[in-house]
């Protein structure tokens, strides 16, 4: 298979299918077929498109095991002309999840990133794909405080008390294996928290501030005390506050073992708005980046 990126088009040419054991009829009909991703209706199958875009990047050095996946599983489906009915978006996530689980040896995954970056949403999906438990450090703090909400803790004791509880939560969570942990957006600012998170693998969900502000404005700021102010429209309030926080935190987020940049992901999926990327696709990309981190660092 040859992958070609001509302009915005992403094309795959099936060159020598006989090497991969397809039957004679298939060879004859498809040995020179060009599959142009832009011709396929992949809007609802971004996960598939994500995988192919990785094949495209890696095809230069032929190191992408997913190319084999393409020949064995995807090409026959495309050939059948029954793509929409045959392809299950969750399938890729589960398959990648199984692969990554076997390399993790029970190490926890810590998702870090700004408020609203999707740590909880993506973390839940990720934990299922890895057959891990899911935990949210904010929920853990609230439970440890007998049900007192994060917002109430901020109100009663201020941010510094909350940070103490948060560190305690991360310490306890780090002692339990096989978990995906969605951390609070500010967990990265305390070096001691990294000591606990470093026992597992940290992944930064990098979402542009404008997208975060749009998301947060849609759900409101009641549960996020650091964004909750009285005046101004919800989007502007969220954006300005996120801007200040992100300036203080961007260096700390960069310490994560792996990063999933939604801007990069949207570009490879040819999506204009990062908010159009589904949580399943982001979770799949998290797995891809973890796998890359483990491979590059012999871990
Ligand atoms: N990929 C996504 N697509 C659509 N909505 C999302 C996505 N990721 C998160 N959301 C929504 O954005 C809001 C914030 O997400 P959440 O997972 O709570 O972020 P965090 O845990 O990082 O604060 C939630 O309302 C959630 O449903
Ligand atoms: O960024 C922050 O400092 C915070 C983020 C929140 O968690 P989420 O990132 O899950 O919203 C929560 O821990 C608290 O409101 C403080």
UniProtKB/TrEMBL annotation:
Reaction(s) this enzyme catalyzes, per UniProt: shikimate + ATP = 3-phosphoshikimate + ADP + H(+)
Q: Which HAMAP family match?
A: Shikimate_kinase (MF_00109)
The primary site where this protein sits is: plastid
The enzyme class is: transferase
Organism field: Acer yangbiense
**PANTHER family under this entry?**
SHIKIMATE KINASE
Q: Which GO terms describe its cellular component?
A: chloroplast; cytosol
Pathway it belongs to? Metabolic intermediate biosynthesis; chorismate biosynthesis; chorismate from D-erythrose 4-phosphate and phosphoenolpyruvate: step 5/7
What keywords are assigned to this protein? Answer: Amino-acid biosynthesis, Aromatic amino acid biosynthesis, ATP-binding, Kinase, Nucleotide-binding, Transferase
The family line of this record is: Belongs to the shikimate kinase family.
Localization, UniProt: Plastid, Chloroplast
Task: Describe the task this protein carries out.
Answer: Catalyzes the specific phosphorylation of the 3-hydroxyl group of shikimic acid using ATP as a cosubstrate.
Task: State the protein's name.
Answer: shikimate kinase
